[in-house]
Write a structure and sequence with these properties.
Blueprint (H helix, E strand, L loop, with lengths): L6 H35 L3 H23 L9 H26 L1 H5 L6
């Protein structure tokens, strides 16, 4: 495994940190764009596919953060790495929940009302 302050590990930590919010933003834009098409075709399949892909990306960020956890032995740069992985796990969980909640209108409303 890489040292806590290696550039490769830092890139993985930033990826884990930013993947879930980026997936949410992509879902928001994609669902907005696809809603008209879903209404025209009277099917929500494209909306479900986009939402599922974005949810998988959000959970991938959580998996990356979980894999890069640092043991709680030393201080210094390890504190930064531990903080980034903890924040990435929290953000991934929160945005995954938001993405699941974005599915509620797809379940409850018709194609033209979402």
């Amino acid at each position: 495994m890489d040292a806590p302050d290696s550039p490769r590990r830092l890139a993985r930590q930033w990826t884990a940190l930013l993947l879930a919010p980026s997936a949410w933003a992509a879902a928001l834009v994609t669902l907005f764009v696809l809603t008209g098409d879903a209404c025209t075709r009277d099917t929500r399949t494209s909306l479900w596919v986009a939402l599922t892909i974005c949810l998988a990306l959000s959970l991938t960020g959580a998996a990356l953060a979980w894999r890069d956890r640092v043991p709680t032995e030393n201080g210094g740069r390890i504190d930064r790495a531990r903080f980034m992985t903890a924040v990435a796990l929290g953000l991934s969980a929160m945005f995954a929940l938001v993405l699941v909640l974005m599915a509620v209108p797809l379940l409850m409303l018709g194609s033209c009302r979402t």
